[in-house]
Amino acid sequence: MSALNKLKIEISEAIKKLTQQKIDPESLTISSTRKEFIGDYTLLVFPLIRHFGKKPEEVGQLIGEELKSNSEIVNDFNTIKGFLNLSFSPQYWTNTLQDIQSTPDFGRGKAKDKKVMVEFSSPNTNKPLHLGHIRNILLGWSVSKIMDAAGYEVITTQVVNDRGIAICKSMLAWKKWGDGITPENSNRKGDFLVGDFYVKFNTEFNNEYAKWQKTKTAQTIFINQNKYENENDFFADYKNDYFNDYSKLGKEAREMLLKWENKDPKTMELWKKMNNWVLTGFDETYKELGVSFTKSYFESKTYILGRKIVEEGLKNNVFYTEKDGSVWADLTDVNMDKKIVLRSDGTSLYITQDIGTAELRYKDFKTEKMIYVVGDEQEYHFKVLFEIIKRLNRPYADDMYHLSYGMVELPTGKMKSREGKVVDADDLIKEMAMEAKTNAEEKGIIDDSNDEERDEIYRKIGMAALKFFILKVNPKRRMIFNPEESVDLQGQTGPYIQNAYVRVKSILRKSEGTYDLNGYFNYIDCNSHEKSLITTLSEFPYTIQQAASEYEPSLIANYVYDLAKKYHKYYSDIRILGTDKQDARNFRIALSHTVAQTLKKGMDLLGIQMPERM
Description:
The protein is an alpha/beta fold.
């Protein structure tokens, strides 16, 4: 238990003993004692005087005396007006460090006997993963690691959208213009190659559309419509209609989709071949990002799963049928619309698929909690999904959560995948390693490692910069990712935290064989830096639990940054190896070692590796 939480409980118990009134420990206002006063923590007494019916100074005195007599951690106090300054016993700090240091899995919560599914990434197989996917993937992976550290059994999944008109566009473009090109004979990563043809299709389609707009048919349609006065505005909005009603390429793509749905052998063969190219490329990117999945689901196999559940819901009056045969859910009683769940021809929609997939996951893993990491543009979809599953009375209905996140952009603006201007994940990963290398060379901080070792260090620094910059921001906020800013060794960045870890590793190498990590139990002269570090260390388990309950990796990011910042200050102000007192030296090295271990654990929860040197 952290010093602050333990102190709150002890103060609450003291007040109850003195007044016979129960006080919520969390209602107490406690802060670190200001430097000009003696003490470790200060209790604001003013809110408590109504329970005592005495002056603030008298209330502070009574609580202080009770704590000094019975507290396990408080050994002295002083009162200044309405403030009670409390000092912890010198041995408390040493004992706390010893407890943390001697607990190998410090921070990890007790097993909760509950399975949690985290779904993230869920890409389309018509293009590579991009910057938007990176935020999704990093959030999902970090949340899964945090939930695991909090004591849950975690299942990670993705739903790969491997069917539909977008996939057929890439397939058709390859068939028309690919000339037999493959990842092997072009030395092009499979997902990039397929993405090239997705862009090629849209380029050719745009050219076709531009020519058609000048035809008599197009001009007649524009003249006969009543909504638009500006021709450019009209044709910008008419593009989908053109694709469906007039486009030669659109017709060919739709015909290919029909062939896929009818299991045409040649179409299925091409589909499987190109999907495998993309999936192999995805796996390479996931490996670079350091993420994995317990199981992947594919829309080509799951899109009809929800039909049986919908039929069951019809029998139980969860759904109703319209005259055309389509099936709907009426959610107007909870301020939502009516939602179609089956088309009139019996085909499913995304909502139907999601209903079936949730059921399949429960059967596969018996997951009691399901967390969906999906962009904020899908918030309404998930409200509808969760409400429908609740009405279907599923055993997992009460513990489903949409981890919604905002768009991520570069300083240059938004990304547009159809025009081929998307910032691909692989390219960004490489760029981050180059940013780390450039930053190190400019500042002259390269050590004596060989080229291979340096490249690995640059990779770790670059990935730390990327991951930390994204995860330190609350998911619900839209954000701008700045690669150059993310590698700054002086800012709130991943490399800044890595540098604190590397400093400890340097200390341990320099002092190897000259210290005893357990030889400090007589050390009772903790300075303010050491007390602050130990207090922060003791809060690590509670930070993990809070981050798990709020699905909030930024809490971990802020914690490790705060710990690193305090250590950098400690390193700057205090002689760690230079002291001539062996117990002080042992204590400071042990404290440094514990800080490094906690930083490593915390950064691991963000999916970040720590280099031994920088």
